[in-house]
Design brief:
Layout lengths: L1 H10 L3 E4 L2 E4 L5 E5 L3 E5 L15 E5 L3 E6 L2 E6 L8 E2 H48 L5 H22 L3 H26 L1
Parallel strand pairs: 4-5
Antiparallel strand pairs: 1-2, 1-8, 3-4, 5-6, 6-7
Helix pairs in contact: 1-2, 2-3, 2-4, 3-4
Length: about 190
């Protein structure tokens, strides 16, 4: 994000969008991107016309009054006058970069926090299944052990879910099969030690 912000600070000149008109602090066209099939030009001087897009498959031309977008031969024009209430400068956008950075960090923290909460929630649901299996298979296991086993049992389906995006019933089907195998093994061990 800071790399993008510093590139924006150095490459983009001062500008102001106000009352449906864009003014840029430059006396010549600015080519933000110019490749074989694509171009992005900002020109508020009036020196560049829409015909600059003719030799490219995709491109943007930003003038004082409009944005002209070309994508696979189709041209679309958006007029700034349609957004007269909208007003911002380069400084305003730089402030947004700081907010985006903060929100990005918060999003990442919340994403992983909710992932951990989801893991423990899945383990709790698997524990309920484990309680039913304990009762059916007559395994002598305490709830704390069932919950701990459930945390391990949901790990494999969670990893598979990341890779294959499993439906709900497949996820808990794997949990059920895994738990049946675990409780069978527990009963076998208890039977041999008794």
């Amino acid at each position: 994000m800071t790399l993008m912000k510093s590139a924006f600070q150095t490459k983009v000149p001062e500008f102001n969008l106000k009352d449906g008109r864009l003014t840029v602090n430059s006396d010549h066209p600015i080519y933000l991107e110019k490749e074989k099939n694509s171009i992005f030009v900002v020109d508020t001087t009036g020196k560049t016309t829409v015909h600059i897009l003719d030799s490219y498959q995709t491109g943007f031309l930003v003038t004082a009054n409009e944005i002209i977008q070309k994508n696979q031969g189709q041209t679309k024009t958006t007029y700034f006058k349609d957004f007269k209430e909208l007003s911002f400068t380069k400084k305003d956008l730089l402030k947004w970069f700081n907010l985006m950075y903060i929100f990005g960090i918060l999003f990442i923290v919340l994403y992983y926090l909710l992932g951990v909460i989801g893991m423990f929630w899945s383990a709790l649901v698997a524990s309920v299944i484990g309680l039913l299996l304990k009762w059916i298979m007559k395994a002598k296991v305490e709830f704390s052990q069932i919950y701990l086993l459930s945390v391990f049992v949901v790990t494999l389906p969670k990893l598979l879910n990341i890779t294959f995006s499993l439906p709900f019933w497949v996820f808990y089907g794997i949990v059920l099969i895994y738990q049946i195998l675990v409780y069978r093994k527990i009963r076998q061990i208890k039977d041999h030690t008794a």
